[in-house]
Amino acid sequence: MNRKHIYFGILLVCLALNIVFTQKMVHQFKFENYENAIIFCVLNLIVFPIALFVYKSDKKQKV
Amino acid sequence: MSDKNNRIPFDEDNYTHNINRNNERKLDRRGFMKTIVGAAGVFAVSSLPWGAVAAKELMGLGDKEYPHKKIADLNKIAVGEAVDFKFPGEHDDAILIRLSEEKFVAYNSACTHLQCPVFWQKEKGEMLCPCHHGKFDVETGAPTAGPPRRPLPTIEVKVDKGAVYAVRVKRYES
User: What is the pTM of this model?
Assistant: First the structure.
């Protein structure tokens, strides 16, 4: 497997995590487990820099 | 070597120069990756308000005491009867049920499934949401049957000088 495909895969995983975390966050919020809602919110926030970092490192690679 | 080839990817919307296709570079792998990163950004930004409101609730700002509101006079409600009222806002429907001489319970009457109004059924001794037959326990507000999974928010009431007052909306223990 080529490196660029690995980067692509990581980004797809990021997208999947985003969806899962958002779903969990909304549910935990509705169940009034506010600590858990905040945890999932933070996780959702963390995924964005990771995705950005992966994208940048992919851009640095030689085509 | 032409100057173009030193800049990778060069700013041109074409790879092949013999097939004419619009937006070729926008639809490639890296363009799609850019879209995913953008989506991650949108997810991050849109989850901020949830976190903020959750933090606010945790810090106890959501548990504020509203101005006491008179629901009804004591002698107007018979034991086993229910009264509808609005609390804390003008559009927040609530229901007060007199269980015994001394005991009153009040809940936000929007069903926790899809916000239909919940009714008190005196004969059966339970609260029923007619939309999807969700039932709630009258003592605690906990769901006992049907689609709802979360209890009704409890409203604290106080009896004072022959009338019942709504004091605050209580967070239930989860």
Answer: 0.57
